[in-house]
Queue: 2 jobs
Job 1
Amino acid sequence: MPGEPQDDCLFCKIVAGQIPATIVRETETTIAFRDINPQAPTHVLVIPKVHYRDAASLAAAEPVITADVLREAQAVADEDKLESYRIVFNTGAGAGQTVWHAHAHVLGGRGLQWPPG
Ligand code: AMP
Ligand code: ZN
């Protein structure tokens, strides 16, 4: 069933509490936790609790939860007192996606170059 937990999904395991994570925020529909390999002073992943392979698939199936993810990204930025930050949804292996459960990277706390690499 679309949105159901996947046995082989790392982030579904974090949602289920089977793998530890440094959780910074949790709502009924989302979890935010620190990236294990941070690329900036703030590098938090905001994920929906439901499983979809990427952001666009999540948006197509669950527009309200997609908005929850974006609202939580702002809440993470507020908690870390970021005036500016970047939200990244890597989509596809060629763009660097390695975990196939939709997630927003929230990056900030240092100067962020544009365009990104
Ligand atoms: P992406 O490459 O866009 O799919 O992002 C996946 C992110 O998950 C990477 O930035 C990884 O560093 C991060 N990551 C992988 N395993 C963990 C973990 N156990 N806890 C927190 N972050 C993780
Ligand atoms: Zn998953």
Job 2
Amino acid sequence: MFDRLPGFRDFYPEECAVRNHLFRNWRSSARRFGFAEYDAPALESLDLFRAKSGDEIVEQLFSFTDRGGREVALRPEMTPSLARLAGARAHSLRKPVKWFSIGEQYRYERQQRGRLRSFYQFNADILGEPGPEAEIELIALLIHLFTAFGLTEDDIVVRLSDRDLWFFYLQGMGLDDDGCGGVLSVIDKMGRESEEKTLEKLKPYFGARASHFLAKISMLREVSSLEEMEEFLLAHSMEGEARVAVEKRVAEWRTLVSGLNAMGLGGFIEVNLSIVRGLAYYTGFVFEAFDRDGKFRALAGGGRYDHLIEKLSGPQMAAAGLGVGDATLWELLTARKLLPRYVDAADIFVVTGGEAEREAAFRDIGRLREAGFRVEYSLKPVAFGKQFKLAASSGARLALIYGSEELANETVKARNLADRTEQEVPAARVIDFVREAF
Ligand code: HAM
């Protein structure tokens, strides 16, 4: 016996039904928001991910050398592939580009609850729109992706944050771009690591003043409103150009938040600057969605990445997007009893006698299936009694019986499996009869 690999899942029909339900809902939400579906190969060249997604993801790659000597990797996320596709056609695409995809992603993660090595992700991205209007549309879609399943603002919170503001602030502290990036990846892990460990990691950037800066960083992480954000930033060593930049940024924040409020989505969002995102390519607004009780891991994450397409040798192209995983959403919908009960039933079960009766039945089975009905029958011609048992357990509403008597009378017996009433139908009228009955 072979076991499946750790972190991978099998999908028996019941699980496939749930997965289809998620995908159907995701697709219909994306279409309502005017996003077009795209796809790309699951296997890409290793270089596409190297240094583009950040060290953490590169360490988690399923990668190998193929028979042609190419270094390849299974995609850990969709964004680099999307950037590759968009970069190749950047000049002919009508902007803003609004695209979505649903696909399997692979990350060699440490085994833990809610973290798999293969999972599905819904991705939606807007390219060519540099202003916060793109984020309004994306976050509105993100919320719709949850409400479409029956989740409400009591279940979900979307935390909004801003790597630009962190950059302004850290640059004001004298750090260069690499330093800012380094400190942000320390901040990304702050909620999960001890204060001593964080302090150790900050020392290379701030030296003896690390604990002073840790206190400041902790204050900024606690900011939970636009007013607090503005107050903190303006109070902290912001002068001249830096001050103008911060004020402009705060105005963009206002556009974002008031847009979402106007859409009636204010109850879902929260300013929370502790979110900085683990992926290295993010440049501006970033956000993550969680269940409000904090029981599960992140449901979704996203943000702006204005330089990725350029870095992958396309032209400069503004970009922002989001990814929603299937696993946490599945857990949350199960906990809230929002997954529909899956009923896998036939419409019609056909019961047949001997060879001649089977022949007549097969002709009608083909016609009924052509007409769109789900028709089942016992593959092996077993005894009548056994076929009736199969009919009852199939969940079908109707049994059509092709016995020798019926064949001689040129009729078919139709049995309503719910109330057990029966009627004779002329053989030539079977398809019309079924159409009328359903
Ligand atoms: P991410 O935060 O790495 O972002 O992943 C987005 C979501 O995918 C997570 O919130 C989580 O639900 C799910 N996910 C990630 N890793 C795993 C895992 N190992 N097991 C189960 N679920 C997981 C991105 O991937 C970005 N590329 C999203 C994006 C699109 N940004 C811009 N456009």
